[in-house]
Design goal:
Oligomer: single chain
CATH class of the largest domain: Alpha Beta
Amino acid sequence: MKRFLPAVLLPLLLPLTLLLAACSGTSSADDPGGGAGGSVDGKGSLTLNVGDQKGGAEAVLRAAGELDDLPYKIKWSTFTSGPPMLEAVNAKAVDVGSVGNTPPVFAAGAGSKITIVAATHGSSRGEAILVRKDSPLSKTTDLRGKSVAVAQGSSAHYQLIASLKEAGLTLDDIKVTLLQPADALAAFTSGKVDAWAVWDPYTSQVLQAGQGRVLTDGEGVVNGLNFQVAAPSALADKAKAEAIGDYVERLRRAQDWVFDHPEEWAKVWAKDTGLPYEVALAAAKLTHGTRVPVALDQAAVDSEQAIADTFADLKLIPRRFDIADYVDDRFNKDLPPSTSPARSYGKASSR
């Protein structure tokens, strides 16, 4: 890899490989309990098994003080991406975990036993198709015949499809190169691919390093939803269901805290992931801090169904299904609709 990576990005590669994000496609899980994992002791004998990623739920809950006075214990298992986490949910090894908008579609399409129980809506500006600074490409239609790196089954995979459709193109009009982020970064910076469809913090990292620019992003193209997904067996257990409801509410409060304290959160996130502080702050303002807890309403179901139907039509998942069969709205409370505007810091990105 060192043969063709620009020197300016070599110090950034390690944090990137550590941060195979929630919405990634086919990565395997880290050793459960490793990394930032382990246990948080609370009161009572019940233990909630929570799937997480580096710099994810545990970090933000701890930073916001929401792990104080827990009425139950939490056992964290750290994963590199959403799909293997949902495999653990299906296997009843994880009770609940956070993922992007596309992994539940692939899991449900494979017949996994999962249930979506909570949602947030945020800016999709971090979901972007990047090109190098010196690229002659200036609009989405310029991608015709070009090679684009993307992680299979990721939210970026759907964003790529949706952006191409907006421009009157399909996947058949480009050369799709299926790569996980670390390999995609190497291919992108060396010129082995013409563009890279990816998500934050990778978007912010490339922009902050001055190694690329945004050709187009997902704003107004994709639904901007992230989900908490639980095991049906855990929801059927009264005590665990109550714990999941409490956990979801703590995450909602922590999300509000991130918006009010972006600099403080960026320091925590940078320390937890190894990302430079400037990159963490840019990503916090571009994506993380924009998220609003929203209801699992019909609009959310309909937008996810559109994603499922798209991948089914392309035969990238093995069957058609109703996403509503995988949704439980018992924890909605008095939340705003899923179409509520994302929070905004104004011109928060480095573009």
